[in-house]
Amino acid sequence: MTISPLNSHTLGSTSLGLILLVAPLMVHATPQNALTASQDTKTIKSIVDSAVNPLMAEYGIPGAVLGISMNGQQYFFPYGVSSKNTAEKVSKNTLFEIGSISKTFTATLATYAQFEGKLTLTDKVSQYLPELAGSHFDQINLINLATHTAGDLPMQVPDNVTNNTELISYFKAWQPAYPAGTHRNYANPSIGLLGVIAAKQLGQGFPEAVEQTLFRQLGMTNSYLMVPTNKMADYAQGYNKQDQPVRLNPGVLADEAYGIKTTAVDLLRFVETNMQQHSVPARLQRAIDATHTGYFDVGPMTQEMIWEHYPYPISLDNLLAGHTQDVVFGSMPVKAITPPQSPQQNVWINKTGSTGGFAAYVAYIPAKKLAMVLLSNKNYPVPPRVTVGYQILTGLEKLPN
User: Fold this and answer.
1) Whole-angstrom Cα distance, residue 382 to residue 323?
2) What are the sequence ranges of the domains in the chain?
3) pTM over 0.85
4) Please, what is the end-to-end C-alpha distance for the chain in angstroms?
5) Nearest to 164, CA basis, from 253, 48, 58, 268
C-alpha cells in the first residue's frame, strides 16, 4: 500500500506559548490520520478479499495481485505464490504477462506517431506498406486496424505463417468477408499490423519504440517485451487451464499484440495516466487521450482504439454482454459513430488480456478517479474477471470520500 505522507509545516519565529498550544494538536493529529489511513486500507482490503479469494479458490489460481487507485491514492494487495515450485510470494513488483492489454500500448504508439507527424490514422494501410498495394488493404485504414474493423481477420496469425515474408503473402492473399468498418472481428493480426507500421514510421523496431518511447516517458521502469536476465527471478511462472507450467511462446506479431510483461505498479501507473493523473510529456498525453476516441458502437459497448467503454453507471449484466463468446470470437456488426466521439469521463473503460498461462483485467472510471488492475498467473475465463472487477469497483465507489 502507498500512503501519502502528512503535510509538513515549517515553523518560523513563533512564541513558546504558541508552540506549546500547537504541539498537542500535532501529537493528536498524526495518530488520528494514521488510524484513518489504516481503517481505509482495512475496508478496501475487505472488499478486495471478498471478491478475489473466491475467484482464486474456484479456478485454482496460484498467485495474483490487485492494484487499486482511488483519487490518486494507490493500494496493492498480493495473493498466493508466483511459482508453485519455489513458493515465492507474489508482490506488487512481480512480473506478469498481460496478454492483449499489450494492444493498448500499440494503439498509443500509433497515436503518438500521428502527433509526431509520422502517419495519419485515416490513411490506408498500403500507403505505409507498399508491398500490400493492390490488395484489400488499399481500402482499410489504420483506424480499422486499431478497432478490429478491418474485415474478418482471424483472432490469431495462422500457424503456417512463421516469418514476415509469409505474413505479407498471407495479407496479400486474404479475402475479407465484410467491407472495412462494417463488422468487428477481434484480431491479433490487425493490431499487430498497426504496430509494425507505427514503429516503421518512427524509424524504430517495435520493441525499441515501446520500451524507449513509451515505457521511459511513462515512468514504467519495470516493464518489458523481453525480460532481462537480472529480472527473471521476478517473472511469475504461468499455469495453463490444466495446471501445467507455461510461459509465452512468441509467434509472429506477438510483441505488437500480446507480448508485454509488467507489474501491478507499472500497469496501474499507465491506467492513471490514461485518467490524466500523472505529468508526462504533452504530446504523449495527447496520444493517450486520442486512444479513447469512440469510433464504433458494438451492442452495449463503444469501441475505442483497443480500449472499450460503456456508459456509467452500468449493470453487471450489460457489462458481461460486452464480453460474451460472440463478441470476443465472432463477427459483430458495428455502427460507425460520425463524427467520432471525443473521450468520455462518465464511462466504464476496460480491457482483458490472456496468454497460455496468465490472465489480466483492467477497468477504470475516469469521472470517479477510480481504477483497478488484476494480474494472475493462471489462465481462466473472461466473465469471472469482469465480475470480480465490477464487484470491487462498485463496492469501492460506495465508500465515503
Assistant:
1) 7
2) 51-222+242-397
3) yes
4) 18
5) 253
